[in-house]
Structure formats: structure tokens, C-alpha cells
Design brief:
Strand content of chain A: 15-25%
Radius of gyration of chain A: 12 Å
Strand content of chain B: 15-25%
Helix content of chain A: 55-70%
Oligomer: heterodimer
Order of helices and strands of chain A: EHEHEEHHEH
Number of strands of chain A: 5
Shape of chain A: globular
Strand order of the largest sheet of chain A: 1-3-5
Number of strands of chain B: 12
Structural class of chain B: alpha/beta
Structural class of chain A: alpha/beta
Radius of gyration of chain B: 20 Å
Strand order of the largest sheet of chain B: 6-7-8-12-9-10-11
Distance between the termini of chain A: 29 Å
Shape of chain B: globular
Distance between the termini of chain B: 66 Å
Order of helices and strands of chain B: EEHEEHEHHEHHEEHHHEEEEH
Chain lengths: ~100, ~325
Amino acid sequence: MKAIFRMEERFGSFLANGDVANAFRFTEVEPALAEGKSVVLDFDGVTNMTSSFCNALVATLVAHHIEDFAERIRFANCDALIRQMILGAVSLGRREAKEFA
Amino acid sequence: MRTIRLPRMTFENNLPRLLSEFAVADGEDDAVALDFGHVEYWIPAAIVFACSAVNRWREQGREVTFENIQRCRALGYFQRIDFFERAGLRIPENFSRHDPGNSFVEIRQIQPGPARLADPLATSLAECLASSKDRMNDVLRFAEYAIGEVVANCQQHALKPGFAAAQHSPKSECSRVGVADYGIGIRESFRRTGSPHLEGGMTDAEVLEMAMRPWVSSKTHLPKGPYGESANRGVGLKMIRHMVENSLGELFIASGTAWRLYKVNGANQGTLPGGSPIPGTVVSISFHHAQIHDFPGMIAAAQAHVGLTSEDANVIFGP
């Protein structure tokens, strides 16, 4: 089972507010993962994102699911900028997971 | 009544003097008269700071008057940018409003809270400054990113309304963005959340220096926010600082009695001359369009600067 979240439809082409990202992660993405689904975050149409948004969403997800995030969470249709942001957030999530452990 | 004779020119380097004049007035209860007679040019941060101060004083029930407006050489500009309207004064306009193109953006209000405000506000300001709606334009994406972070900070931390404005000089190809609020300020934000970063006896200058370090935010220590985790990591503004410094721009930030001005060859810092604190926070970002290239590369360099690596083969991209 796959839950696909189209980010542009939900948040527009620029994703800015970390509080919004945090709420989305907590109320939609985490419940889908808890139901055993894999998650696709589809960035088609997203052209920009702040570090605050990306870290609140991606780094926290990675930190919470450090064992299997690579199997259960995919990032689709990312341009070079979004990809770079996500890579940074993943490294942050890994660091936070170590700190929590 | 306290009369503040407003300076002719205000740029980042003499902004602390203006902040100081307002801070001294803020500590009093008297009516305030703002004398515009000599004003010719102010950067957006100065304008939105004055706007914030007037709104705060009006909220407190203080009388605020504007003097020598008709002698002000920047009257038309202050009207076009909606300064007087935002400050609660309607004056007849002796001109027809036209599309400002990419020369300036009228003052916008920032309401505190989690509403999705930072995104559309940042996008509209950035489109104006870049004079482009091309979503892949590097200047647009840099401006959008920087404004988005600063506006979101204001929304999340100030607890009172703020204001934003932007301006572009076609001659120098330099853009400036200003965001100011009359909220609780950086020290109080750390104090209210019981941040372990805040130590007793720290001066405002020490608090500001600390707040500008990567991984320091007034909320990073909070174990359980409303959605299980704090949304803040304390890297957004520091990444902007790195990008601005490396593109020959400037980042000014002031809170309490302290200010810092970051440039390519280092930071200037100081305390406000009068020794009185400003309420809230003031941020000014300036950048030269010709220096903004390869925004993804700028982000990668800024991430590396704050200690984020991007070498991770396990991330799965693709459907």
C-alpha cells in the first residue's frame, strides 16, 4: 500500500513554514506510516522550499524511522534544488537519530 | 511630547542610530512627533521598523503625529509604499498610482501564528524584486527563500504583528528586503521557552551572537511541540547569512539593545547608542542580482557551512 502526497497541490510551489510542515508530518504522513503504508512525497511543481520546511518534514521523518526510511519513504519529481535540500535534511535526520539513540 | 527628527538618509550602517532614537521614545509615555522634514531616502528595514513602532505606540494609546510631511522629499515614495496608511494616517495623494514594476513592494503586514502566510508573501515580493515569474530564476528563488525564512521566523517568534517591504534599485541591481516587528524580541523568545542556551547575565549582544550560531533556536530544545517535535532547528537564518556574505550582500539584525551587520569580509556589531532596547526584531537583507547564480549550488554551500552533508546514497528519489 502506498500513500502519495502531492506537495504542490497541498502547499503550492514554494514550501516555507516549518510549523506547517510539522503539522503535515504529524497529522498525515506519520499516520500513513503507522498503518504500514509506504509514503511517496511527490514534489512535482514544487520549485522552492526553505530549510525550515524541509528539516521539519524530512529530517524528523528520517529521525523517527531511521531503520527503514529508505525502504518506506520516497521523494519523487525533485529538481536539483529540492534534491539538495532533501539530502541535507536526511543527513540532519541521521544525526538526530544518533543523538536520540 | 518627544519629537524625533528623522534622518535624511538611512542605510544599514546608520540604522542603529534611528533604532536608538525610537527605543528611547519607546521607554517613555509621552506623545511622539515624527519630523519628516529632512527625510530623503530610507532602506525598507528602516521604514517597516518605523511602521511597527507607530503601530505599537498607537496600540498603547499614545498620540503619534507626523510633522513637516509636505517638506519631506520622499513623501511620494512613503505614500506609494503605504507607510502612512499602515501607520494610520490618510493623506491626499497628489499623483496617480501606477504599477511599481520591480522597483518596490508596498508594506505588507505579517500576522503571528501558523497560517500559510510566509509562502505567498515571499513569492509575491520575490517576483517583484526579480522582475520575473520564471519559477526557476535564481534571483527569484534566492529572494523567495530568504524572505520566506525571515517572515516565517517573525510569524513563529514575535507573537505580535510585523511588517515587510522590499525595494530594488535598477541602477545598482541591488535589492533590499526589510522585516520588522514590535513583538517580544530574541531574548524574551529564549526566556519564555526556558531555553538552556540562555544563561543568566547575558547581554543583548551575547544573546544576539548566540542566536546567530547554527543549531541555536529558542525552540530547538523543546521535546514536544504541538505536533510531537519542535519545527525549529536553528539553521535557516544562518544559511541566509552564509549566502548573503558570499554574494557581496549584507544581513543586518537587531534586537534588544544589540545589532549585527554581516558582510563578505566579516561582521560589524554594536549596541544602540542610547542604551534603550527596541521591542521586537529588525532584519534587513540586501543582495546584488549579478552575484546570485546557481541557487542549488548556493544552498549546498550554505548547508556545508552549517555542517549538513549531502552524501547519502540511501535516499530514494523517484516514484
